[in-house]
Design goal:
The chain is α+β, with helices and mostly antiparallel strands. It contains five helices and four strands; from the N terminus they run βααβαβααβ. Helix 1 runs antiparallel to helix 5. The radius of gyration is 16 Å and the shape is globular. The relative contact order is 0.29.
Length: 132
């Protein structure tokens, strides 16, 4: 029997977004803009400080990913990274992306290096299967 900890209505919501670099943007440039430019700007917004419990970046290693993909999943798309937003409710996450300051300051920076047409969005709650 599984001893999974089920997601509950009190579990935080997470929005995970798989990001694809724009055509012509190198992985190095993508990671620089994402980490050194976008993250501090995003983290400085009052709505982010107020609404989010956590903001994480999963930085993909393209060399290792391609090697493993060839072996296990040859049709794996080429993502530059994954960002995870965590909040008490899904509505609090949505409020961040509807905020005027986000739309005016952060979105234009994202559009410089992220291919929004190839972005994949996953929303849900984590269920712990092993560990605490």
């Amino acid at each position: 029997m599984s001893s999974a900890t089920p997601a509950t209505s009190s579990s935080p919501y997470r929005l995970s977004v798989l990001l694809t670099p724009k055509e012509g943007v190198s992985f190095e440039e993508f990671h620089h803009l994402w980490t050194e430019v976008l993250a501090p700007l995003f983290g400085s917004l009052p709505i982010v400080k107020r609404n989010l419990l956590k903001y994480e970046q999963f930085r993909i290693d393209p060399v290792i990913t391609r090697a493993l993909a060839r072996e296990y999943a040859p049709d794996t798309p080429s993502y530059g990274g994954m960002v995870i937003y965590e909040a008490e409710t899904l509505e609090k996450i949505r409020e961040v992306f509807q905020d005027e300051e986000y739309l005016g300051k952060v979105l234009p920076v994202e559009e410089r290096f992220i291919d929004r047409q190839k972005t994949q969005i996953l929303v849900g709650q984590y269920v712990t299967l092993i560990g605490a």
